[in-house]
Amino acid sequence: MANANGARRVVVTGMGVITPIGLNVPDFWASMKAGKCGVSELGGFPLEDLKILIAAQIKDFDPKQRLKHFQRDKLVMHADRYSWFAAAAADEAVKQSGLEFPIANPYRAACIVGSGAGGLVTYEQSYRALFLEGKRATHPLTLLRIIGSSASAHVGIEFGIKGPTFATCSACSTATHAIGIARDYIRNNMVDVAIAGASESVINYGTMKAWQALHVLSPEGCFPFAKRRNGTVLAEGAGILVMESLEHAQARGAKILAEIVGYGMSSDAKDMVNPDIEGPNEAMRAALKDAQLSPSDVQYLNAHGTATTINDANETRAIKTVFGNHAKNLAISSTKSMHGHPLGAGGGIEAAACINAINESWVPPTIGLDEPDPECDLDYVPNVGRKLDVTYAMSNSFAFGGLNAVLIFGPAPA
Q: Which DSSP string do the residues of 133-198 spell out, in sequence order?
C-alpha cells in the first residue's frame, strides 16, 4: 500500500530497549510513568581523579541470561557490552513483532544498527592491559569487539539477515539516522523488513575523562530546560525497532504499533560543538513535509533536550520558529531527564517513548524541572506526565557537528 506520493507505507511492529530505567519496553515505560531517575553514583571501574562522579549506568544486565538462547551467532557472548545491548534490544523487538527470522527471502531484510562510539569498554580494557599491566597481547577478538559495525553484524547473523547490513555513526543522531534510512529502504522497495536503531556503552574512566574535559557534563544531574541546568549526564543503552512495509505486516496479520510517517535530516555545517538554529529548523520542516503534515498536526515532541545551556535554548528557539503559534500548544518533554543521554542510542530509545505516547495517550514528563529557564518558555510537561490524545509525535536528535535527524510517528493505519 502506497501513500499519496506512490511510496510504500512503513510501519513499526516491534520495539526493544535497554536503558538505565528499564531493561525492556514495559519496564522502561513504567519507570517513565513513575518519573523514575536512572542517574546514580558512578561505579564498576576505578574512579581515580574523576571530577564527574555520576552517570546513568545499567547495573543489572546479565548477557548470559538475556542472550543464552541465541543460536546462529556463536560469538555474541564474546562481544563488547554495546553489542550485547543491541542484541538484547533487537531480540525483544523481534519477539514482539512475531516475525520468523530468517524471513523467506533473507535478502529482502535489512539490519542497520549504529553506534556513535563502538566498543569503548573493550578499548579501555585493552589499553589498561597493554600499557598499565604490561601484557604483550590483547584478546584475539579485540578488533571485532571494538569496531562500530559489530553490533549490526551480530544482530544480522543471529536473525539471518542477508540484505543491507551496516552501522550508522552520527554521534547523538545515530539511531534516528539508522531508523530513517531503514524506513527509506522499505519505502523505496529495496527491502520488506528492517531491524534498526543503535546501541552505546561508553561509561568508563577514559570516556568520562574525555567528556569531563569538554565541560558539558553536570556533576549534579540532568535537568533539561531548567534554569539550574549545567550539563548533560552520560548514559548507556540501546533502542531498536522492527519495521515492515504495511502490506508485509498486514499480509501476516501482524499487530502494528505505529507508522513512520516523516523523516528529515540536515547539517548545520558551522561548528563542531555549538548548535545553530537553521539546521534543526530544516530537519523538522523536512520531516513535516515528508509526512505531509502541518505543524499544528503534531501533539507531542520528544526533544533532544540534553540539559546543556546552549542546546536547550537553541532547540526551544527552533521549535518556536518551525511551529509558530502552535509551539505553545505542543507537549514537549526530554526523557533524558530520566534515562540520561545515551548518545547514539537516544533516538531509538526515544522512538519507543513516542510510539507508546501515541498508543497509550500519555506523554512522559521532563523531571527535575522545578524552575524553567526564562529562555525555555514552552510546555515541557514538568515533573509529572499527563494524559493526552497523541496522533502524531515528533522525535528530535541533534548531534555534535551539527548533524540533525528528525522522525515523526503516527498511529497504526486503520
A: S--S---TTHHHHHSTTHHHHHHHHHTT--S-EE----GGGHHHHHHHHHHHHHHTTS-SEEEEEE
